Amino acid sequence: MSDATLHQKTLTARQRASDYLARRHHFHWAEALPWLLAIAAFFVFSNRMAFGSQVLIMIMFAVSLDLILGYAGIITLGHAAFFGIGAYTVALASLRLGWSEPISGIIAGGVVAGLAGLVVGWFMLRYRGLTLLMLTIAFAAMLQESGNLRSDITGGYDGLPGLTFDPLFGHFQYDLYGHTNYWYVLAALAVVFYVVRRIVYSPFGQALTGIRENVRRMNAIGSPVHWRLVTVYAISAAIAGIAGALFTQTNAYVTLTVFDFDTSAKVMVMLILGGTGRLYGAFVGATVYMVLEDYLSKMSPTFWQFGIGLLLVVAVLFARRGLLGVVESASAFRWRTGAARRRFVWKTEYWKALAVAAFDGGLIGFLIGFAGNLGRADRMSLFVSAFPARVVAFIALGAAAGIVINAVYLLVTSRSAVERPAS
Question: pTM for this one?
Fold first, then answer.
């Protein structure tokens, strides 16, 4: 290959890379789908808009976590601290100061939470790994206990009920079904998401991705790693504060449970289900989680978390990039015809993967059958002894489901599958 040809190919590759970076921030038609579905939900489920508002708030909360976890690689289990700061900022401003204007309230909640994130991030983000994880948990727990000690201000675990807020723009009243709140939260989510999207596709966002992938290399090239991490942590805290402020305004009450570890863990599960580092993964994960939580809690108020845990196990085993990652992989997969036809070469290690999936699925099937009988003590003890056929059926169905799910995952999403032209 001549030097001229090599130089031309290098320029072509650089041009393709430059064109990709120049257009990757452009909006695509598929990005309109979540927003169209949110608008359609208002007309289809008009009597469930109070629940719909909570779904949108949790989406915003998950987006704030995705900004630091999915793009900057900051692992935290105390993000509820900033959610709670925003929630109590609005509540105390309304109750103690008489300031009940909603839009300025969420701005204040975001500003206070962002300042807290800036100060706390400056100290905590000097650490990595397990140390950072424990510090974030401790910070949220410390805020919760401080609020409990000053129950004369925060209301303690009894909370601050009966909060009142001015009509939106001084005109739109809050109705029983939450119609006004739904549009209010959806508009706030659209603004926040636009800002996050601009950040992600900016040079600052690319630097965050570099820090996530190799922090030592970014330090070596002179990148101000600590300042960038602190900055994005403060931005994420501000967004979480806005979500918390909206939570208080739409529910007209707040308690110290907003600081709970469960709140931080719940939003983490949402992000894992949807997929980290994908922007819209928060939309998918939060919606799936909230809908399942609502449905399963009505079916079994005591054991509804079992269904959520089962879904999380399946996602971790078979969809490590989240539900949105599976959809992306499936949409990118193409079967080719004619001279370009290809077929997968099945590897021997895939049989081991299917055997493990069958074992896991059978165990999960047994647990589902066992949990289904927990409502009655007499049936719980007889599940194994008196109904062996039912036990075998649950195990067999679970094993079959595990094999099918894992086989589809290997054929569609596995990057290790080898393709070769068919003879």
Answer: 0.77
